[in-house]
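Reopening this one. Same input as before:
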Amino acid sequence: MPDVPPALPPLHAAWLGALTGVADPRSEPRATCGDCVMCGGVARSGSSVTFSPALKCCSYVPHLANFLAGRALAGPGRGSVLDRIAGRGGVTPLGLGLRHDDVRRMVGARSHFGRSAAVRCPHFDDATQGCGIWETRNAVCSTWFCQHGRGAVGQRFWHAVRDLLIAAEEQVARHCLDAGGLPAEQVDAVVEHRATVRETVRRANAGDDVATAEVDDESPQWFARMWGAWQGREEEWFARCADTMARLPDGDLPGRLVGVGRLVEDVVRRSADLTRHDLPERLLFTPGAGSEASTDVLRLVGYSPFDPLVLPAGLEPGLWLLDGRPVADVLAGIDPSRPTSLDVDVLRRLLDFGVAEATGADVDLLAQESDGRRLLVLDDGRRLDLDGGLDLDEDRGEDVVLG
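Same output, byte for byte:
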């Protein structure tokens, strides 16, 4: 396999190392951003979801912290940053922010992520069909991957990294704001606006209705209140913030950040999980909606519709034996001479990708339908057909954090 590049921009990689000791993690090798695997159809990605080459995973409007905006102004994405500044909506001394309308549009397009032109990143470069601010992209963009080598285990690691780096971005941006010498009432107004937007994002990610939120974040009066004496000199402000951030040694970051202890611990724990391959004593086979079987392969949807687990079709009869009985008993009953048969590696992958889950020994597993079919009844009420193959009702969506 070719060398896998670093996942994070240099700044974020340095921060992660200083905060957690996790040094410069590699990117997910199957998430090929330059030649998007999700644009290649099911034969390449394994997924029934195909992204548009004109969007890829950039169905998203990023919040770009003030110091990142300043750094981007010095790079190839300068034009897209200037366009956002000129548009004014959501732009404050804390950064190039989300408008509440951006949040509403992203919520509306979430079920069509990667396919709906209703939302596209303003920094998407049509010429390269890629990110125009790659080296200064934010924590959300840096840690989102369509596919993961360890499935949900890898996704949980990157979510932990994302949450820690978002906290770092927010606090460093606030340091740059405080260092700017703005009047106290202006600082308060800027901070209050950012808190309002973050609360809207939190509610949206929690599934709450944000369509009726009425917030002024585009009018000339709002923009004047946010920028005060710096209005008309926004580019200079962001460049100043980049300089302020550059004077912060990476090694000083742990002492400057407040309330991130749990986030640091989570990254360290999730990083350790990537090296573990433990199997529980008992497993349930729990494929999700969209799972399908052909004559050649099984496409099993678990933790993400973008990243199904693809296995040989000949494994299906053995998979239904994972009905809560001890794993050792299942493996002992498998004929190893068969061309395709369950083994420990397959069981680990089922667990990683969320198409099997641990269960206790005291679960009442089987129910009988009136037509004689046997159903596996899970604790949360899901019912899986043991006799009818992969024909499921459960819906598992993709976690797309808005900002």
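So the earlier flakiness isn't reproducible anymore. For the record, The longest strand covers residues 282-285.
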